[in-house]
Amino acid sequence: MSLLSKEKLFYSDVYQKGFNAVVINCDKSINGNFIVVLDKTAFYPEGGGQPSDIGKIDNARVLTVFEKDGIIFHETDIPLTIGDNVYGEIDFSHRMSNMQNHSGEHIVSGIIKSRLGYDNVGFHMGSEFITIDINGTLSDQDIDEIELLANEVVFKNLDIEILFPSESDYKKMTCRSKKELSGEIRVVQIKGVDTCACCGTHVARTGEIGIIKLISHQRYKGGTRISMLCGKRALFDYSNKNKNVYKISGLLSSKPNEIAINTENMLNENSLLKYKLVEHKLKLFKCMADSTPQCEKICVFEEDLNPTELKQLCQSLCEKAAFVLVLSESSESVYKYALGSLTSDISTLGKLLNEKFDGRGGGKGIMQGSFTGCREEIEEFFYAADQ
């Protein structure tokens, strides 16, 4: 029996949730799952930037679906028996979300093409966002205008038509993306908005998309990458962000529409405080150095010093000793360190300390890294070590 699935039910009715079929092949895959072929299927396979459908075939979970050489393969978690009559059930919430997002992408890409002349050169429906890669630069104003126009198309509730033109008729059509195609050609058309050859599934009318939201845009490979969401996924994204906005609003005691400027002010104040703190610490390090008598070695343990502060304190103390070791505990029994000298080579002493306390790090003039050990042992070894 031929493995070729003759009926692609997802094209005859994108709203079909279940179907009966016969299992014509089942093989174990290399990852331990099973690859099933049916005589007909309503499961859409991954392709054209759109993820596959998921769902169940009898008691087997359909994890992903793909097409190769005209054969549609269903990856399942348990095997199915060849020759059995089975019932396939689409996860329609997942299907509907994909249809909303793919249909929304057509509208956005069509508007960009008609108004700005740029092409969609990349499309991917990811787990977080849908991305569209445009071969031109879009401004913030362009993005706002495109989003508004796209949603106006949704509000008009236009038909989304599926056409099957002949090759000659297709060549005469004005399509957004003119591909060299042969055989049966499938074209998705929203009159006055977009006409494009496409193999994906789409809603029947634009009103079913619900809402189109352009989340962000950035420069990408000389053009623009747009991240967007449609329908239920856009609603969930808005709901989550709205909750976070009001939570931040409460924390800042700000109105929701003022949190951006108030956060910016808070960050500026925080930067100023950090600058002042650095100044005070430098004065403190100088006072520590001034109050330290001249000696051969100095070993100092200070709390909550970052690597920059360790180096600064070490440099200050190097005026008073031939060898200076400054440490600050970063976690239990792990110390960040700075080892320095203005007059002597520290490489030998640094090597000895690193070997003794499983140290990592290096440098010239000032060595920096980390030690693992107890404070008393590090201090004792440092003072006893020969340079």
Overview features:
elongated; five-stranded mixed beta sheet; single chain; six-stranded antiparallel beta barrel; alpha+beta
Structure description:
- With 387 residues, this protein is α+β, with helices and mostly antiparallel strands.
- Helix content is 35%, strand content 30%.
- The chain has 9 helices and 20 strands.
- Strands 2-3-7-6-5-8 form a 6-stranded antiparallel β-barrel. Strands 16-17-18-20-19 form a 5-stranded mixed beta sheet.
- It is elongated.
- The chain starts with 6 loop residues before the first strand and ends with a helix.
What's the layout of helices and strands?
Blueprint lengths: L6 E2 H4 L5 E11 L5 E5 L1 E2 L13 E3 L2 E9 L2 E6 L8 E6 L1 H25 L3 E6 L4 E5 L5 H17 L4 E3 L3 H6 L14 E4 L3 E4 L14 E9 L2 E8 H22 L6 H32 L4 E7 L5 H11 L3 E11 L2 E7 L6 H10 L3 E3 L3 E7 L2 H10 L3
Parallel strand pairs: 1-4, 16-17
Antiparallel strand pairs: 2-3, 2-8, 3-7, 5-6, 5-8, 6-7, 9-10, 10-15, 11-12, 12-13, 14-15, 17-18, 18-20, 19-20
The helix tally amounts to 9
Radius of gyration: 33 Å
Helix content: 25-40%
Termini gap: 83 Å
Largest sheet: 6 strands, antiparallel, barrel
Q: What are the secondary-structure elements, in order, as H or E?
A: EHEEEEEEEHEEHEHEEEEHHEHEEHEEH
Number of strand elements: 20
- Secondary-structure-derived class: alpha+beta
Give the amount of beta strand, in percent: 25-35%
The largest beta-sheet arranges its strands as: 2-3-7-6-5-8
The general outline is elongated
In terms of per-residue confidence, which ranges show pLDDT below 50 for 5 or more consecutive residues?
none
Output mean pLDDT: 91
